[in-house]
Write a structure and sequence with these properties.
The complex is a heterodimer of chains A (about 375) and B (about 300). Chain A has nine helices and 21 strands. Chain A is α+β, with helices and mostly antiparallel strands and about 375 residues long. Chain A has two domains: about 240 residues, Rossmann fold (3-Layer(aba) Sandwich); about 120 residues, no CATH class. Chain A has a six-stranded mixed sheet with strand order 6-7-8-3-9-10, sandwiched between helices. In chain A, strands 13-12-11-14-20-21 form a six-stranded antiparallel sheet. Chain A has a five-stranded antiparallel sheet with strand order 15-19-16-17-18, with no helix packed on it. In chain A, α3 packs across α4, α3 packs parallel to α5 and α4 crosses α5. By secondary structure, chain B is mostly helical. Chain B has one domain: MetI-like fold, CATH 1.10.3720.10. Helix content of chain B is about 75%, strand content about 0%. Chain B is built from 13 helices and two strands. The longest helix of chain B has about 35 residues. The chains are: A alpha+beta (about 375), B mainly alpha (about 300). Chains A and B meet through α2 and β6 of A and α8 and α9 of B.
Chain lengths: ~375, ~300
């Protein structure tokens, strides 16, 4: 089932006596979630992603705009008529009911001809429990379960009525780091097995990148970019997206483009054919640095962190916004930890230019690099 | 005894002394009074030890009337007030505008003096030579005959007493239940909405179980409070409750001590012990039943 959002806007009225004006949580948001995909809705806290999710599931009514499931306009449909399953951030499992009763709950709400027989309900609940591997926990109560198990019960409860769309609000934020890794694979596996179009909200870019087929990046209620995770990472459309994706984060420098050449702190760093002259932000991914004795970028070496598989070099550059530059390189042999400076050559496909004011991407031809 | 526990006892001493002097000693004293037969208040002497006082009290028609009144009061007011409070607090928490105002209004009776409220009830219900009272006036609209609620038939007086008791205990229960309802996480209701749960089902399957500990607390304290009712009856029917046939167990204890027929601390003590046993039994039964229900 495709999900299509068309110019979706949500404004909340001002609260309290002194508050004035209104808050726009989501502004003119349009995107399409392709059928059967696992989609990550990504953005910092307060960017309107949960509001978007709530509008898709029907808990919030959009101020304007439309929501389609396939060809059907569901904008003004009640949540239970949309065929959505929702997993809440704190799972919202009913504490006084057993796991089985929790999973049965949505089925028992059905009325009329949709209502299955008691036996059929149990069969479906069992089947769903088996899918998320909790069949041995059915008689327990939520408080007797671990965080990960509770989450799986919540997913089972959302899936039992065979929804067209599964929505998850910050599904991993309440789990500890180890469980988070395991659970995100679990979610990915369940989604692949059921093939249900799944949309999940997260502020953790790593989480979104690792399991999504498609990510949608939002900021302050506005769509920033969408695409396959690798594509968004490799080709950010603006500084925000570039900064938001990637661990360690991208290094941002103040730069100047002059006659098709990029200057960092007055030194020519890279030739950028096709880029217009002017002040720019320069984003360089940590893996965009190659240690090279004749490299164009010279940094004051701070320390070398050996991480095993690769090495992280922490150094300083006068043009760098945050003060420290972090480069990830393949092997520790190339840099002398005792050295004062380290010189890097840049990989042009890992260097992004952004307009200084609008922070929009400035493209240049990175294929015709002379290189080193 | 090691040093630490000596220290602990030392710290506990002040409260133990106070508890001993004002709680445990009087309790034992009451027990002793209740088994001293033919106690003479003036000479402070007694003639024997036995259960005669209990036997006397249990055969006293006034006491039996008091027990009957108290039980009727308990059986009617506790369920009624709890259900009413539940309805009102549910309504209160589902409205947004003017909620604070309504909460204040519903809480007003709590800060009003019992006797003052009693006076108002008298005015509402009493028939005098000059007027039938506001309630009778309203009954007249429905072609119902005037009833003397204060000096009339027993059932009418019981009705006023129950009405009054419910009115007095309602504010506290509403306060407790409103805060209990507010503490139920919004997420449960959202989850229920996504699943298309009907309002009645949300109430009975989600809200009620979630606030059940508070309801249990209200029912138990309600039982205890209603068993100890006295001032409510006095406020409506004056101090001569035996004559009005509206005495309660606590009222009987008071009468035996200080009333016109008073001066019998032994009978009063026996009645007090009987009340204690009744309240203890009912509270235990209550706890057992609810604990079983909640753990199910």
């Amino acid at each position: 089932m495709n999900i299509t959002l068309e110019n979706l806007t949500k404004r909340f009225p001002a609260r309290g006596r002194k508050a004035q004006g209104e808050t726009t949580a989501v502004r003119d948001l349009s995107f399409q979630v392709p059928d059967g995909m696992l989609v990550g809705l990504l953005g910092p806290s307060g960017c309107g992603k949960s509001t978007t999710l709530n509008m898709i599931c029907g808990l919030e009514t959009p101020t304007s705009g439309k929501i389609f499931f396939g060809e059907e306009d569901v904008t003004s449909l009640a949540p239970e008529l949309r065929g959505v399953g929702m997993v809440f951030q704190n799972y919202a499992l009913y504490p006084h009911l057993t796991v089985m009763q929790n999973i049965l709950f949505p089925l028992e709400n059905l009325k009329g001809k949709d209502r299955p027989t008691r036996q059929e309900m149990r069969r479906r609940a069992l089947e769903t429990a088996r899918l998320v591997q909790i069949e041995e926990l059915l008689e327990r109560r939520p408080r007797e379960l671990s965080g990960g198990q509770q989450q799986r019960v919540a997913i089972a409860r959302a899936l039992v009525k065979m929804p067209r769309v599964l929505l998850l609000d910050e599904p991993l934020s309440n789990l500890d780091a180890r469980l988070r890794l395991q659970t995100r694979e679990e979610i990915c596996k369940i989604q692949k097995k059921t093939g249900i179009t799944t949309l999940f909200v997260t502020h953790d870019q790593e989480e979104a990148m690792s399991i999504s087929d498609w990510i949608v990046v939002m900021k302050e209620g506005v769509l920033m970019q969408q695409g396959a995770p690798q594509q968004v990472y490799d080709d950010p459309q603006n500084l925000f997206v570039a900064k938001f994706l990637g661990t360690p984060p991208i290094n941002v420098f103040e730069g100047l483009v002059k006659n098709g050449r990029l200057l960092l702190d007055g030194q020519e760093a890279l030739s950028v054919p096709g880029a217009p002259d002017g002040d720019v932000w320069v984003g360089i991914r940590p893996e965009g640095f190659l240690p090279h004795p004749q490299g164009t970028v010279s940094c004051a070496l701070d320390r070398v962190e050996v991480l095993g598989r690769d090495t992280s070099i922490v150094c300083a550059h006068p043009a760098c916004q945050s003060g420290t530059v972090r480069a990830i390189i393949q092997s520790e042999n190339q840099v002398d930890p005792a050295g004062k400076t380290v010189r890097f050559a840049l990989r042009p496909e890992k260097v992004f230019l952004f307009h200084r004011e609008t922070e929009e991407r400035i493209r240049f031809d990175c294929t015709s690099q002379a290189g080193l | 005894m090691d040093r630490n526990s000596k220290k602990a006892w030392l710290y506990l001493l002040p409260s133990l002394v106070l508890l001993g002097a004002f709680l445990i000693y009087p309790l034992i004293d009451v027990l002793i009074y209740s088994v001293e037969e033919c106690y003479n208040f003036a000479s402070q002497t007694y003639q024997g030890v036995g259960l005669y006082n209990y036997s006397y009290v249990l055969h006293d028609p006034y006491f039996l009337q008091a027990v009957e009144n108290t039980f009727v009061l308990v059986v009617i007011t506790v369920p009624c007030s709890t259900v009413l409070a539940l309805l009102i607090s549910t309504a209160l928490s589902s409205i947004r505008p003017l909620r604070q105002l309504f909460q204040t209004i519903y809480f007003l009776p709590y800060v009003t003096n019992t006797l003052a409220v009693g006076l108002v009830f008298m005015v509402l219900f009493q028939r005098t030579e000059y007027t039938d009272g506001l309630v009778n006036l309203m009954l007249g609209w429905f072609e119902a005959g005037p009833i003397d609620f204060i000096n009339g038939p027993h059932w009418a007086k019981m009705f006023v007493l129950c009405f009054y008791t419910i009115w007095v205990v309602l504010p506290f229960k509403i306060l407790v239940l409103t805060s209990a309802l507010a503490s139920v996480s919004e997420e449960y209701y959202k989850a229920a909405r996504v699943d298309g749960t009907s309002r009645t089902r949300i109430f009975f399957r989600i809200t009620l179980p979630m606030i059940s500990p508070m309801i249990v607390y209200l029912v138990i304290t309600g039982f205890i409070g209603a068993f100890k009712a006295y001032s409510d009856a006095v406020a409506l029917f004056g101090t001569d409750l035996n004559a009005a046939g509206m005495n309660t167990i606590v009222g009987y204890v008071y009468d035996m001590l200080y009333g016109d027929s008073g001066g019998y601390p032994s009978y009063a003590s026996a009645a007090a012990i009987i009340l204690f046993v009744i309240v203890l039994t009912i509270t235990c039964v209550n706890l057992l039943v609810t604990r079983k229900r909640i753990s199910d």
